[in-house]
Design a protein that fits this description.
The model has no long low-confidence stretch (mean pLDDT 94). The longest helix has 16 residues. The protein is an alpha/beta fold. The chain is elongated. The chain contains five helices and four strands, in the order βαβαβαβαα. It holds the Pfam family EIIA-man.
Length: 142
């Protein structure tokens, strides 16, 4: 099983999770954590470690979905992901969006977190589209 940590700046993690309840229902494999203006980096790092410990229970891997590459949540998640002592293994993806969170429900039963991350990234890229006016062929029947 792959559990997910949703790590964002501000209340984005809570907002995404609240909105996901409207579409998908509960996502019990998702653990939100937010960096707030009144929380220092060290405090966030301590809280992240506690959430990681909770998300790791019974999991084959933990996938961390961050809102922004190279931000504090990303840096702290990568610190754990690249530590060879970290168990279970962790993968980190940046640029979380609503489809990514919803599709995380479809990869939660996998056992390899790197495979889960690659699969989720591939599925999510298909969700990024530009709306185009559909051209309809005109009928000769009047």
């Amino acid at each position: 099983m792959i559990n997910v940590i949703l790590a964002t700046h501000g209340s984005l993690a809570d907002a995404l999770l609240t909105s996901s309840h409207m579409v998908y229902g509960e996502l019990p494999h998702v653990f939100p954590i937010m960096l707030t203006e009144n929380k220092g980096i060290n405090s966030f790092a301590d809280e992240f470690a506690a959430v990681l410990k909770q998300a790791s229970k019974g999991a084959d891997g933990v996938l961390v979905l961050c809102d922004l590459q190279s931000g504090t949540p990303w840096n702290i998640a990568c610190h754990h992901a690249f530590d060879p002592q970290t168990q279970p293994p962790i993968a980190v993806l940046g640029g979380v969006n609503f489809p990514m969170l919803l599709l995380s429900d479809e990869i939660k039963d996998l056992q390899d977190v790197e495979h889960a991350a690659a699969q989720l990234l591939e599925q999510t890229q298909e969700s990024l589209v530009q709306a185009r006016l559909a051209e309809a062929a005109q009928s000769d029947d009047f």
